[in-house]
Amino acid sequence: MTVRVRVAPSPTGSLHVGTARAALFNWLYARHHGGQFILRVDDTDRERSTAEHEAEIIDSLRWLGLDWDEGVEVGGPHGSYRQSDRYQRYREAAMTLIESGAAYHDNRTTEELEALRRQAESERLHPGHYIRRTESGAGAGAIRLSVPQDHPVVFEDLVRGTVSFEARDIDDFVILRSDGTPTYHLASTVDDIDYGITHVARGEDLLPSTPKHILLTRALGADEVSYAHLPLLFGTDGKKLSKRHGATSLSTYREEGYLPDAVFNYLSLLGWSLDAETTIFSRAQAVAAFELTNVSRNPAVFDPEKLAWMNGEYIRMMDPSAFQAAVRPHVESAAGRALSDEEWAKFQAVSDLVQERTRLLPEAGEQVVFLFGDLEDYDDESWEKVMAKDGVAGILDEATSRLATLEVWETGAIEPLLRGMLDDLGIGAGRGLQPLRVAVTGSSVSPPLFESMAALGRERTLERLGRARARLDG
RNA sequence: GGUCCCGUCGUCCAGAGGCCCAGGACGCCGGCCUUUCAAGCCGGAAACGCCGGUUCGAAUCCGGUCGGGACUGCCA
C-alpha cells in the first residue's frame, strides 16, 4: 500500500515551527517510503482564516524545501484541498451518520449543556457521562456522534505504542454545528478518508481527539488509518512555545537570515536522530533513514542557540559565490543603500574571512559596514577598552606615517610594514594592532586587520587613522 | 478534578537486560592557535526523578510513587 500522508495547517496565522516540524516529519516519511505528501488547508474557522496567511504558509513550506504531490496550488485527483470548498460533502457525511443511527440531532441549549458539565464536575464524573443522546432532538440543532459504549477504543500509535480510551470517557462530540458547518473532527476525518490518507502524524496535543476520529472513521465505514503522535515543542523555559521565546513562525527565521537547510536539519533533530553520532546531515541522509517508529516520545525544547550554531555550520559549508549572493541584501541593508560594482568588490576581497565568522547572514553586514560608511560612530565599548590607553596616540602616528610611504596598497605589503613597526617599537601585536583596528573599522571586532585595510583602500584608511587621532586629543 | 501522554547531562538526541562506573551535539569552563572576533584543535564539569520487584545481571522489564505536559468548546 502506498503511503499517503498530509499536513493540514489552518491559515489563521503564519506557519508555526511546531507545524513546520510536523510537516517535515510527514514529508520525510512520504519520501522515505516513496509515497505521497499532501497539503490540505483546514480553513473551517471562517473568522480567522485569510488568504494572506495561506500564501505565507505555502511560501514557508516551499522555503523549507518541502514539496507536496497533491494539494493546494498543485491540485490533484480529489478536487479541492481546501476545506471551505467541501462543506456540502461534510453535510452529506453527517446526514449519512444520522440515517444510520450513528449520530443524532441535539437541540439542547448552551446553558443546558453547561449545566450538565457543571454537574459532571461536581460529581467528579466525566462530562461524557452526561453529554449523551437524548430523545429531544427532532431534526434540529447540532449533530453529535453517538459514541458506542460497548468497547474501549484502542489503537497502535506508531510512536507511543498501544493507547487506550474507555468509551465512557469520550463524550458525544459535535460533528456538525447548528449553523451547518462541520467541526474539525468531522472535516478532518472525512478528508483523510476521501483523500486516501494512510498515516496521520501530528502533534501530541491531538492524542485525546484520536479516539473520536477513529470512531467517526468506523461509523463512516472506512478503513482505519495509522496514527503517530509527535512530541510537542516547548520554549527554553519549558512552557509551550510562544512569541515570548523569540520567533515561532518560520517566516521570521527566513527574514532573520537563517538558511533553509540549517532549519531543516535542526527541526529534524527535535524528536528524532539520524544515528547516535551525527548532528549535521543532508536531506537525502534524513530521507534514507527516517522512520516514524524511531521518533522520540519526549517533548522537546526548541533551542535558538543551537539553531544559530547550526546555521553557522551551514554558512561555512556554502560555496563562496553562494555565500556572496545570499549575503548581499544584508550587506546592502547594513550599508543603507545599494552598492556599486566597485564597492561590492571591496566586500568580495574580505568575503571569505567574513564567511568564517558568520552565524546569521545579517551579522555579515555588521562586520563590513566600515567599508561603506563614513564611520561616524565608534563602538563605545571598543573605544574604551582599546583607545583609552597610554601610547595609543604614538602608535597611530607611527602607523600613519609608515603606511603613507607604501607604494603598493595590498595585504602582502601592509602586513610586513606594520609588523616591522611592532618590532621597531618593541610592542606586541595585541597592543599595537588593536588601536589600528578600532580606528579603521570602528570596533575591536572585525575581519582580520591587514585585509580590512587593504579592502578599505589607502586614502580612507589614512583618513580614519587621522580622525581617530583627532578624537583622541578631543 | 477527570482522561491520556511523558520522565537519561542545563538543552536536543543515542541507549530496545550484560558492549554503559552511560555515547554524540549545543551551551558552559580551561588550554592551544592567533592581530581582535570567529573558526579549528585539545581537555573538563555535567544525567539514568524516587522506592520496591523480576533477574546471575536493569538506564533498559513490572508495580508504585513523585514530577511535568496535553486535552477536558457547537476552536483547531
Characterization of the model:
- By secondary structure, the protein is mainly α.
- The chain is built from 20 helices and twelve strands.
- The chain has helices spanning 17-32, 51-64, 87-100, 110-122, 127-130, 184-194, 210-219, 250-255, 260-268, 283-289, 304-317, 320-335, 341-356, 361-368, 380-387, 392-403, 411-425, 429-441, 449-456, 458-473, and strands at residues 4-7, 36-39, 70-71, 103-106, 142-145, 153-157, 161-165, 174-176, 199-203, 226-230, 233-234, 300-301.
- The strands form five sheets. The chain has a three-stranded parallel sheet with strand order 1-2-3.
- α1 links the parallel β1 and β2 (36-39).
- α6 (184-194) crosses α7 (210-219) and α15 (380-387) runs antiparallel to α18 (429-441).
- The longest helix is centred in the first third of the chain and has 16 residues, at 17-32.
- The termini are far apart.
- The relative contact order is 0.09.
- The mean pLDDT is 92.
- The structure holds one RNA strand of 76 nucleotides.
Question: How are the SSEs ordered, and which strands pair?
Answer:
Layout: E1 4-7, H1 17-32, E2 36-39, H2 51-64, E3 70-71, H3 87-100, E4 103-106, H4 110-122, H5 127-130, E5 142-145, E6 153-157, E7 161-165, E8 174-176, H6 184-194, E9 199-203, H7 210-219, E10 226-230, E11 233-234, H8 250-255, H9 260-268, H10 283-289, E12 300-301, H11 304-317, H12 320-335, H13 341-356, H14 361-368, H15 380-387, H16 392-403, H17 411-425, H18 429-441, H19 449-456, H20 458-473
Parallel strand pairs: 1-2, 2-3, 9-10, 11-12
Antiparallel strand pairs: 4-5, 5-8, 6-7
Helix pairs in contact: 1-10, 6-7, 9-11, 12-14, 13-19, 15-18, 16-17, 16-18, 16-20, 17-19, 18-20
The structure holds one RNA strand of 76 nucleotides.
